[in-house]
Amino acid sequence: MTTMPSPTRTTLLSLRGVSKTFGAVNALTDIDLDVDAGEVVAIVGDNGAGKSTLVKVLAGVHQADSGSITFDGSDVQIADPSAAIHLGIATVFQDLSLCENLNVVENLFLGQELSPLRLDEVAMEVRSWELLRQLSAKIPTVRIPIASLSGGQRQTVAIARSLLGDPRVIILDEPTAALGVAQTAEVLDLIERLRERGLGVIMISHNMEDVRAVADRVVVLRLGRNNGEFDAHTVSSSEVVAAITGATDNVVTRRRDRLQNLEEQSGMASSHDGKETT
Ligand SMILES: Nc1ncnc2c1ncn2[C@@H]1O[C@H](COP(=O)(O)OP(=O)(O)O)[C@@H](O)[C@H]1O
Ligand SMILES: [Mg+2]
Fold first, then answer.
1. Cα(231)–Cα(233) distance, rounded to whole angstroms?
2. Mutate which of 21, 53, 93, 227 to test ligand 1's pocket (most atoms within 8 Å of Cβ)?
3. Can you name the CATH fold of 11-235?
4. Nearest CA residue ID for atom 16, ligand 1
5. Cα–Cα distance, 186 to 142 (Å, whole number)
6. Is 31 helix (H, G, I), strand (E, B) or coil?
7. Beta bridge partners of 170
8. Helix, coil or strand: residue 205
9. Could you count the other beta carbons within 10 Å of the beta carbon of residue 58?
10. Which residue's CA lies nearest to atom 25 of ligand 1?
11. CA 222 to centroid of ligand 1, rounded, Å
12. Which ligand gives the minimal distance to the CA of 20?
């Protein structure tokens, strides 16, 4: 007897009721978020929606005031950035934190030269090529300074560096924000490589085209709260934009609005019939 293969979802990261205030500002209120292995989750929202705060909570830069975070099935505290990395949550911040004057290999291993797994120059170069090849990265040589790389190549180096610690979840903050069309395509390809490798990918983005091109799920934040979650393959840009701006909450309110419109229209029609206007 054969059994049908069931679609398996391995939830890597799970947030429930996560809140964070800065003084009187509620940056995050009651946030829920799930990220599966081999899934790209886009987090979208207007300025001030809480995206960066959420990233920083997951990166261990900020601590949540309340709520729970589960990683790989266990409740965890992410007390500081090294705790996040130790768990297997890597973050590529928007500024990329690369050293312009250092070359690709030096940037990849910056701060890790003195680790117990210290590698020599040759080993570091070999490992660099390995990583970049896995990402199908288009970098001509690993011995040129970051300053002479394109924006897409820099993003690639920053992502490659975050993979050195063998993370399970990788967070990319606005990975395509500063890039032209061709470089954006390169980075979107790279995100697909990460998904193929089974990582859970969280991508913060303002660009709806990029989101729909590469994400599996779209999570909308608005004023620090969850404001909708969509299948990225089927949702329209206008639906996402409506959730971002708060023009509508969800399919239920949309349906209600549609019915109300119909009622109003038929009401108008009948009042025209009776030629009664008030
Ligand atoms: N370190 C901080 N101190 C005080 N307020 C902050 C701090 N970081 C963020 N905020 C506030 O929290 C809210 C969410 O900001 P943020 O997470 O940066 O949003 P986004 O990244 O979506 O634009 C905003 O009102 C912002 O002003
Ligand atoms: Mg931000």
1. 5
2. 53
3. Rossmann fold (3.40.50)
4. 50
5. 18
6. strand
7. 90, 201
8. coil
9. 25
10. 48
11. 12
12. 1
Neighbours of ion ligand 2 (CB under 5 A): 51-52
Instruction: Say how far apart CA 197 and CA 210 lie, in whole Å.
Output: 20
Q: Across the strands, what pairs with 203?
A: 42, 172
Q: Say which amino acid occupies 103.
A: N
pTM of the model: 0.83
**Alpha-carbon distance 51 to 43, whole Å?**
7
Q: Tell me how far apart the 2 most distant CA atoms of the chain are, in Å.
A: 90
Distance CA 159, CA 166 (A): 11
Assess contact for 218 and 235: CB atoms under 8 A: yes
CA of residue 173 to ligand 2 center, whole Å: 8
Query: Which ligand is closest in space to the CA of residue 222?
Result: 1
For the chain, the structural domain boundaries read: 11-235
Beta strands in the chain (DSSP E): 11-22, 25-36, 39-44, 66-71, 74-76, 89-92, 169-173, 200-204, 217-222, 225-231
- 119-178: pLDDT as tens digits: 677 888 888 888 888 877 788 888 889 999 988 888 888 888 888 888 999 999 998 888
The CA distance from 172 to 233, in Å, is 20
Q: Which residues line ligand 1 (CB under 6 A)?
A: 22, 25, 27, 45, 47-53
Comparing 57-66, 68-77, 175-184, which segment has the lowest mean pLDDT?
Answer: 175-184
